[in-house]
Amino acid sequence: MLETWVVIVVSFAYLGLLFAIAYYADQRADAGRSVIASPYIYSLSLAVYATAWTFYGSVGRAADNGVGFLPIYIGPTLMIALWWVVMRKILRISKQNRITSLADFIASRYGKSALLGGVVTVIAVIGILPYISLQLKAVSASFTTVLQYPEIVIPAKVGAVPLLGDTALWVALILAAFTILFGTRHLDTSEHHEGMVAAIAFESVVKLVAFVAVGAWVSWGLYNGFGDIFARAAAEPELEPMLAPFGGVGGDYSSWIWLTILSMLAIMFLPRQFQVTVIENKDERHLRKAIWLFPLYMLAINIFVLPIAFGGLLHFPPGTADADVFVLTLPMSQKQELLALVVFIGGLSAATGMVIVETIALSTMVCNDLVMPVLLRMRALRLNQRSDLTGLLLAIRRGAIVLILLLGYLYFKIAGEAYALVSIGLISFAAVAQFAPVALGGIFWKGGTRRGALAGLSAGFAVWFYTLLLPAFARSEWLPIGFLEHGPFGIEVLKPLALFGVSGLDQITHAMIWSMVANIGSFVAVSLMHAPSAEEHRQASLFVDVFKRPGQGGEARFWRGSASAPDLFNLLARFVGLGPAGEAFAEYARSRGVERPEARREADADLVHFVEKQLAGVIGAASAHIMLASVVKEEALTLDEVRAMLDEASQIVVYSHRLEQKSQELERATQGLREANERLTELDRMKDEFVSTVSHELRTPLTSIRSFTEILHDNPQLPAAERERFLGIVIRETERLTRLVGQVLDVSRLESGRVEWHESLLDMREVIEDTAASTSQLFRERNVRLECNLPARVPKVRADLDRIVQVVVNLLSNAVKFIEPGRGRVEIALAEEAGFLRVDVRDNGPGVIPEHQEMIFDKFRQGGDPLTGKPQGSGLGLYISRRIVEHSGGRLWVSSPPGEGACFSFTLPLVSEAALGRAA
Amino acid sequence: MEEFDVRGQRLVALCLLGLVLFSYPVLAVFNVHATVAGIPVLYAYFFVAWGALIGLIALVIERPD
Predict the structure, then answer these.
(1) Is A728 helix (H, G, I), strand (E, B) or coil?
(2) Sign of CA dihedral A105, A106, A109, A113
(3) Domain range annotation of chain B
(4) What is the tens place of the pLDDT at every residue in B5-59?
(5) Three-state DSSP state, A211
(6) Which chain B residues in 23-62 lie under 8 Å from chain A, judged by CB atoms?
(7) A243 close contact with B: CB closer than 8 A
(8) What is the ipTM of this complex?
(9) Is B11 within 8 Å of A244 when comparing Cβ atoms?
(10) pLDDT tens digits along A43-57
(11) Hey, are the CB atoms on A81 and B38 less than 8 Å from each other?
């Protein structure tokens, strides 16, 4: 019955059954008829505390030192007696604040600090890795043992296996897939996993039945009752000391007490215990039964540990069997195949239950308290604008589950072989115990601050890392062993197992004493050094005084600010989906007897608070706080204001202060409006001026066209030469009109930015030569000489060819226009200077008088004396040219010393080498 | 403070009782080489005391208000 394929098929069938139970429970939950809303199911789900450690490891520990396995269960029993005081409070706080994980709880308490949540998450993930590796080790060891049937082997001695044959890796991957199916099929606004809880409760029954079955068989099948086993043990000189172990093999009383204290803290702050006890709790009243039922479960699963341990020690010659798998090897040695299979499944139950709940709890923390706060702060990702984030949240959680299990596997590979099961687990216990001071301190002491919590956690974790984790690596030869024996760099006083020369303690006791001194000391000292911020003060009072406050809307009065209801709705919908968001708002309306809040425009403080809590249920308090800030215009509360509001004494002071603030804001707004209005008036005036000038300019050519065409119309007998001359004038005026309209269009396009620029690399030498050639007719007509003064080679510039030609033509024709025919001379020169290419158009005409030198670049302004000469252009050419040059990154100006003519110059920036390379 | 109601106070007392029962010097009293009904005294003590403590907790918590 223990062939490989049978074991594998039965294992998968069992996992399938678990999934079916979870699926059924989820369906029932969706239908509103929860199967887990019972104190008995709740108590059984707490028994996820009993893992492979309990199932396999306790016997191993008992076989080693007799009583060492017991504090792990007696400690929690003592702690649970305090739950009526402590856990009831944590439950109340967590429900009111929609806490999603342990990290969320601690972060919320200390001012919704994202940093603190991240630190807690990192500590939890690193701290739990040994514990997960323990489960992988136990499952793979039990599998290896069963597969060697009928031989009895020590799993660690089976020899090296190739990666693909590595059971632990396969176990890790299968459990990851299974956990993803269990815990992250969909996103729940309250982080309830009803299916998972139902499956865990079932597993608790299976592992208890399996363990009691093998225990009963060993006690009464293999031996003749407890008395027989202990009597035989007493007769063995090697086993006899274990019957009264304290002071000898069982260690001293102090390490016993420290293990009890450690377990008292672990039962509260292991992430999976927090998950099932707090997050998955359906009803506060269930606590009442659980407080005595859960200890009873632990008692029951421990009764047979000693009989099995002694039975195994008596049965197998020393050194031929691993005590950690006695529960399997005892039935196997007697050919009890069915019993062995049941035990194997029981062990699988214990391990899978732990791994599923632990990784779900950790993945929630990683997602809500580590990854999301970072992503939300990265503006470049634009997460604020994504319409649906549920897929992203699920993907992060699934990734985290796989990662955590693979890290657990890695730890198993690195450090797992050197320790027995229980010793691996205790390292994790000591890690989560670091949460106790800030969490327990946080619900009873208002003085604890964010900085204090950060300091305490960091200090405690650092000591844990140094005194427990590093030695584990050193023992596995991943660090030089001299590090343990002589301290780092030979500094004896820093020996990780005897810090500051304190020796004679066992490793866990030593680590617990030092880490708690560091943790509590830093937490209290740093908290007392700094005053808490307003937000911390508010959260502290919400947590510590949770029983003094009305249940609903108690927090809303601490909030002021403004937000729109539709914005809030959209925000919620992005994270939970449209349907659930609608339901949440409907529920809000029902519970408060008000209209549906989407219909309102302005959201009140109560609604904002409601949405924040809903969001916190999905992404944790710290992330929810960040998200809400994106739609809510919250005014910062000062500490004094919070105190004032808490005392409810000087409300008027607060209001008048706010009124003053408001009136100042109003004043600032009015000032801004006035300035905007002035700018608008100015723009309007400029537009009117432009239109009237344009109409005036258009009328001049139109008038002459009209008068000449009237003459032609009224006098048919006009001589041919005369008619020719008049038609010539009409044509010229029409051309002028066309040019004018074209320029007006140019101006309007330039001013509104609607011009299309076709930029390319230009050789200005070619541009000037071409332009000079095309305007040569104009120069010949006026008998003006044009000289081009161009260097042999110039660097290229980047500009729009047609536009630059337009500028050069404009400057050349301007020069020709104002120059005296016959003796006129225009020179165009090109030169390179300081990153620019400079073009000069110099004439020997009358020049521009200094008063006009800026004005001529305005719209419809011309040089020369308007009284003497008739206008020769539209007055738009220079204006347009300057706009073009400026757009190309250059400058256009005129210099005209009296009596020397005028020189119009413009520059264009050279293209950098790099840009040139790209263009080529 | 509501968390420290009468029931809460009794349970805190039981927790303290448990701490005394499962630490030095009480444990030293039972750490002897003798048996009760064939079971070593220390182990018998552990399970009896543990069971009794759970019974007391159940009694306190399930007692009607």
Answers:
(1) helix
(2) negative
(3) 2-62
(4) 888 888 999 999 999 999 888 888 888 888 888 888 889 999 999 999 999 999 9
(5) helix
(6) 23-24, 27-28, 31-33, 35, 37-43, 46-47, 50-51, 53-55, 57-58, 61-62
(7) yes
(8) 0.95
(9) no
(10) 999 999 989 888 998
(11) no
